[in-house]
Design brief:
There is one protein chain. With 185 residues, the chain is an alpha/beta fold. The protein has two domains: 5-79, Orthogonal Bundle (Arc Repressor Mutant, subunit A); 95-184, Endonuclease, Chain A. It contains seven helices and nine strands; from the N terminus they run H-E-H-H-E-E-H-H-E-E-H-E-E-H-E-E. The strands form three sheets. Strands 8-6-4-9 form a four-stranded mixed beta sheet, with no helix packed on it. A three-stranded antiparallel beta sheet has the order 1-3-2. A two-stranded parallel sheet has the order 5-7. Helix 1 packs across helix 2 (30-37) and helix 2 crosses helix 3 (43-52). The two termini are 21 Å apart. The model has no long low-confidence stretch (mean pLDDT 84).
Length: 185
C-alpha cells in the first residue's frame, strides 16, 4: 500500500505513542495512547490509525472499549527506529537530489548483493553505485549514451577494477527488457 507523507508520519507517530503508553506489554485504549504517549492527534484519529495497522497492532474490544497492543512486528519496528522502513520523499523535477538519495540508499541497504535492471545505463549509473560494497550485477540494453558506448565501457572497466571484479555487466536485446528494477539483499 502506498502512503502519502502525512499518512506515513501519522502511522509512525501513533505506533511510537502506543509503545510509550505501554502498548508493548499491556492493552491500551486510544485515549490512553494520547494521554500517556504524548501525541497531539484526537482519539478518533488514533483509533482509526491503530485499527488499520494490522500485523503491527492487534486489538480487542471489552465492554464497548477497543484496546490496542503492539505485536512483535510492531515492537521490532519501533525498536529499530524505523531505519529500514522510513521512506525518503523527493520533490519532482530534482534529478540531482534523486541521484544522491538513491546513492545513499543503495550504499546503506545492500547487504549481500545488488541486481540492477535498467535498459539504459551510463556513467551516472556507475556514479550512483560507487558506495555499494557488495557484488553488483547490471542488466541493460544500451551501454552509455547514444554513440558513446566505447567511452562508457572504458569507465566501466575502471569501475570494475576499483571494485575488485565484484561487478558484472550483461547486455540483452530490446525485446527482453522493459522497465527498471533494483533488487538488494
Amino acid at each position: 500500500m502506498l502512503l502519502d507523507k502525512q499518512s506515513f508520519v501519522r502511522q509512525i507517530t501513533t505506533l511510537k505513542a502506543l509503545y510509550a503508553a505501554g502498548g508493548s506489554q499491556s492493552w491500551v485504549s486510544a485515549p490512553a495512547v494520547i494521554k500517556i504517549g504524548g501525541t497531539d492527534m484526537d482519539a478518533g484519529t488514533v483509533y482509526r490509525v491503530l485499527s488499520s495497522l494490522r500485523g503491527k497492532v492487534r486489538y480487542r474490544t471489552n465492554n464497548g472499549v477497543r484496546r490496542f497492543q503492539l505485536t512483535m512486528k510492531g515492537c521490532a519496528e519501533v525498536d529499530s527506529g524505523y531505519a529500514p522502513h522510513t521512506p525518503t520523499f523527493i520533490a519532482p523535477s530534482t534529478p540531482w537530489s534523486t541521484q544522491r538519495e538513491l546513492q545513499k540508499f543503495l550504499g546503506n541497504n545492500s547487504k549481500k548483493f545488488l541486481f540492477v535492471i535498467d535498459p539504459y545505463v551510463s556513467e551516472d549509473t556507475l556514479d550512483v553505485l560507487k558506495d555499494v560494497t557488495v557484488p553488483i550485477c547490471i542488466l541493460a540494453i544500451q551501454l552509455g549514451r547514444l554513440g558513446s558506448e566505447p567511452a562508457f565501457l572504458r569507465q566501466y572497466k575502471k569501475f570494475k577494477k576499483e571494485k575488485k571484479g565484484t561487478v558484472e555487466l550483461r547486455q540483452c536485446s530490446r525485446k527482453d527488457l522493459h522497465g527498471r528494477s533494483l533488487v538488494a539483499s
